[in-house]
Specification:
The chain is of the alpha+beta class. Helix content is 22%, strand content 30%. It has a five-stranded antiparallel beta sheet with strand order 3-1-5-7-6, with helices on one face. It is globular and about 40 Å long. The relative contact order is 0.22.
Length: 116
């Protein structure tokens, strides 16, 4: 998963919300950090969606966030459904391959607006 077009606080909010549902490669105490102030930043992490820890909950963001998911069809679909339970989600693009797909989403605070 990559996040763009957002503050480190919103990136942290998204990663923590998903971290309550799935394990990831980020430590629980780890927060996103700017590498270079004033430049565009891509926030990234990997989640294991095979064994949910808990159900997703609605989350508030300060501004919209662009999310790109990449992986197997089942994993990307499962993460999209999880995001849709916590945020209002708008699908902006997809690219499908033989074994994987990429999905670009725009998430905001609010009630889910699209079902996948």
């Amino acid at each position: 998963m990559t996040l763009t077009g957002c503050s480190r606080e919103d990136a942290d909010t998204v990663f923590r919300a998903l971290g309550r549902t799935y394990t990831s490669d980020r430590a629980a105490h780890e927060t996103p950090q700017y590498i270079s102030e004033g430049h565009a930043t891509v926030w990234t992490t990997t989640f294991d969606v095979s064994h949910p820890l808990a159900g997703p909950e609605p989350v508030t963001l300060a501004a919209p966030v662009t999310v790109e998911l990449q992986g197997g069809y089942w994993a990307v679909d499962r993460m999209t459904e999880t995001l849709n339970a916590s945020f209002a989600v708008r699908k902006e693009g997809t690219a499908a391959g033989d074994q994987e797909k990429d999905v670009q989403l725009r998430i905001t605070s609010g009630i889910p607006t699209e079902r996948f």
